[in-house]
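Anyone able to model this chain together with inosinic acid?
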Amino acid sequence: MAKKKVQKRSAKGFADVLIGLQYGDEGKARIVDMLAKDYDVIARFNGGANAGHTIETKDGGKVALQQVPSGIFYPKKILYIGSGCVVNVEKLAIEIEKLENIKGVKVDLTNRLRISCQASVIQPHHLLIDAETGKTIGTTKNGIGPCYADKALRMDGERLLNIKLGDLLDDPQEYFKKIKANYLAVCGKYGIDHAHADNIIATMESFFNRIKEYIEPDTLFLEKKVQKGAKILFEGAQSIMLDITKGSVPYVTSSNTVTAAAYVGGDLSPNYHRKTIGVAKAIMSRVGYGPFASEFGGERSEKYCMATEGGKSKHPQPVEAKYDIEKLLKSGDYFDIGVALRVLSHEYGTVTARPRRVGILDLVQLAYAIRMNGVDELMINKCDMLNVFARTKRGVLPIVNGYTLDGREIDYVPGTVKAYYSVKAKVEYKKCFDSDVSGVRKFGKLPKELQGLLREIESFCGCKIAGVGVGPEREQFVKV
Ligand code: IMP
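re: yes, here you go
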């Protein structure tokens, strides 16, 4: 065969990376959805069904995306799931079916959705292990950690632990046998009844048959597209503070969520990188345990939000929705203000339905995330919620703009949870605006107090703000 000349880096094609800068749920999907029209491919590079994005359909309905990248409503865009992702075949098949059956919108993923043959498969035993071991971290119970752990372990004696989608395509009989062996081994270890093993494997195989047409055997798939001039948008799942190395370890997810990870799990060379877009929100939130320096109500809130009864959240949305919000806002206790903000800004988990812990915008954490990831453009969602502080007793807007650790000022996020839990956040109070900004579409029309705050964020973090979310609807956005 004649040797094909390898082309140099394309002049036209490039990749941008979009990541979450806080603890997840910053509203990344709505930004991807907005930007998608300028790209040819939207690609995921990490995580799996632990991500949960809700996007609005054109008729005002809602669709939850877990594994399929955002941008589904642009019929010509390619959606790519990279080798750094972990795939739950059953959930993916169901998600595809739901997307293809949205009322009034034609979504056809044939020839649009491509999944790397090197992506690892979430096996039934991963779900068992996560159920047994994930409680202390507060995982989403999607088997994400055990799957990445098996990827790193590779083999246990003769037993193959990391099984990829391509393996199942090459030889389903052989590899489903290996999946069963892994399941039986874990049932044995935890004393779990394995009577249904054959059924579980058969069900998984039938779901696999429904998604196998999407598996991409060409490991240079994205590179070839970029060579021809394609513009790629990498869509990060989870966020910086949940990165397995850079986040608040061990209270993190099990993949790398940083910009650089896009060029490992996204199957493209970093040569093509153009810029990084970071997404934050004006009122922060976190699900799961772990340090959160600016949390309303501190440790008390962490315990309250994570409390369960009979395996379910003790304080779900329907319970909190009945509280007297104005009374909570007038309380002198930050814990109460946090509960009110959670209710007003609908901060409940998409995947888990848990109440999210909420906190004051923390500029030290934000600056850390921006510097660590080389963020070029910053988008800040939920700025419309800041006027809620005008209804509090003091009527001022709190912002965290300093950390002290053992009496010493620091300008970074500490590298251990012990140190991070000990950090004292310095709060500065700003004058608050009370007007409703959800109808504003121009930066100059935002209240002076909000404009001033946004400029201060830019100078504190050393990064330009490119957009401001002023409401959940598609068009409720101010481009800067
Ligand atoms: P896992 O990713 O299911 O292993 O969960 C590990 C930690 O990451 C838990 O605290 C989860 O709540 C958190 N987490 C995982 N995915 C998301 C997400 O998409 N948004 C916010 N938190 C997440």
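The two ends are 53 Å apart (CA to CA).
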